[in-house]
Predict the structure.
Amino acid sequence: MRPHPRPRLTRLPILLLAALLLALPGQGQAQAQDRAQDRVINVFNWADYIDPYAIERFQRETGIRVRYDVYDSLETLEGRLSAGRSGFDVVVPTSEPSFARLVRAGALRPLDAALLPNLRHLDPALMARVAPVDAANRHGVIYLWGTVGLGMREDRIRALAPDADLDSMALLLNPANARRLARCGIAVMDSATDVLPSVLQFLGRAPDSADPADLRAAEQALLAIRPHLRSIPSSAAIIDALASGEICLALTYSGDVIQAGVRAREAGRPFAIRYVAPREGAQLWFDMLAIPADAPNPQGAHAFINFLLAPDVMAGITNQVRYPNAVPASRPLLRPEVADDPSIHPTAETLARSFLAGTPTPAAERARARLWARFKAGR
């Protein structure tokens, strides 16, 4: 093909030439900024909740740099997103209540299935369990999941409370047990969202109840053990406290207890850490991969989510953090001690007893926040 002749600058009107000279640097700078933005994604996730190699591999294979920030509570995540212009491209809210609230508020971008071919790997039965809060699973996919239950150092508990049932929330919520176990250290994670449903379930009340009488009963149960608690820390701090032997009993996330056990073994500690899903029913939760509505780089966000859903990548993440995922094809790729651990992959019986806590109304949420503040203050 014959090349097009270049225009002769001398024939351009002087004013047009000046306008072009002024405009071109700005256009070039804007285009460069757009290109640079396309090569970076900002991820907001729980601490210690991904395989570092997965991030390294994604960056190497795509050329997209990952800026990774962490939070220690769902309240922190919701606060950042509710304020708007968070700057994050991928976030990991828990299905109930955070993800549900964000969907209703229009704070999340609908996912583009055409950009997510690895959706085919997801377990349809698990995805159906989060569909009630996200019709047709339009705004999120399951990243990891687990239960809320008891992490314990069984040898110390047996020594101090030999007659206590280890598979019941009464181990913690019976004040007589809490008094005996205070000597070896008790902790309850600092999350009203995840603690109150378990307390209400133990009391025989609806886990998402907004009834003032139910909330008073939960508050009284918590205040009754408050003098015996060593701390009300973040879930991340509980991992270290269990692993070091600083505490012997904690109410927290299943995977955090399992991580604590791994750290204790690696440190050569002379004790084991065990996770127990309470027989009254453990709260089941799903952490979702989602994209904020105002994400700076939604294309890169889709690429990251699709990458994480690959079976080999998900296997690496579960091997690292000891939480189950929703990609069945990853199971054969897990290390045997992970694949065969019932505390990581609950039995059918445990799942049948588990419950999903609903999303409280705004008024109930405010009442729970006030309850939690009183519990933390011990009054």
